[in-house]
Amino acid sequence: MDVSMPQPFPQALNAEERSLAPVVDALSAASRELTGRLSQTGTRHEFPSRARVIEMVEALRGVLFPGYFGPSELTGEGVRYHIGATLDFVLHGMAEQIKRGLCATCDHDSPDACVRCENGAALSTSRAFIGALPGVRRLLATDVLAAYEGDPAATSPDEAIFSYPGLLAIMSYRIAHEILTLKVPLIPRMITEHAHSVTGIDIHPGARIGERFFIDHGTGVVIGETCVLGKNVRLYQGVTLGAKSFPLDEQGNPIKGIDRHPIVEDDVIVYSNATILGRVTIGKGSAIGGNVWLTRSVPPNSSISQAQARSDKFEEGGGI
């Protein structure tokens, strides 16, 4: 059967079922135009499974914080066994999903289309990701301390790990960021968008975020792809670190991959519902007030109120 052409419903179907045939044909053709999942030779490539990817992320939470996520009764040697068994599960499961991601985004009709995923690259990439997890755990430990020390309502670091949506979103981001640095398509964004749907916090996996990062309350926070955040940065609910404009190419399409989001230096606090747009720099030790709209850089140790944000000049050390 030529799978490149929509097939009509069998004549044996009743009139009502046959009436769906034009709709099925039109949607099938549109799907092929959009996704290109069927090559000219009819080869089909599977996308990564969202359910499987999220399953492995949830399993990794139990590796990064054993006893908090996953089995709660772990002690002694049981911790090592649990971590080892889980990592083996993630290693091979993630390799399969990485392979799917590589194949789904390659040139299906090229004779060398799937060299990256057929020669063991997916498994080696998965191993590299597993090898990066101790570094992820170190960063997350600093994020937990930042949450506990930065929130007077926190009774213990345990409370932050168990219940803070900001920490859940950061954990997903740090996992996804490591996978993105290995040039894996699709999967990193799947991970962070799942966290977005659960927490209301949207962190692009391409952002670069230093240690001791704390998102207080969290709902509505947006951190764009090319953001750079230093150490000890604190954001409150509704903060947007976004792009001001999108340069276009000769065909009028947005140019991708350019730096277009803010740089936030060490020890900066951005209060609720502030919006910072464009490739601007928020200097070290600054505080950006609530509801501020900012499209210009500010010097270190600035305190920017709404009135100052509307003025023509920022002065270092100015009060909110």
Give a summary of the structure in a few sentences.
The chain folds into 2 domains: 47-200, serine acetyltransferase, domain 1; 220-320, 3 Solenoid (UDP N-Acetylglucosamine Acyltransferase, domain 1).
Detailed description of the structure:
The protein has 320 residues and is α/β, with parallel strands linked by helices. The protein folds into 2 domains: 47-200, serine acetyltransferase, domain 1, CATH 1.10.3130.10; 220-320, Hexapeptide repeat proteins (UDP N-Acetylglucosamine Acyltransferase, domain 1), CATH 2.160.10.10. It has 10 helices and 14 strands. A 5-stranded parallel sheet has the order 1-4-7-10-13. Strands 3-6-9-12-14 form a 5-stranded parallel sheet. Helix 3 packs across helix 9. The protein is globular and about 70 Å long. The N and C termini lie far apart (71 Å). Residues 38-43 have low confidence and may be disordered.
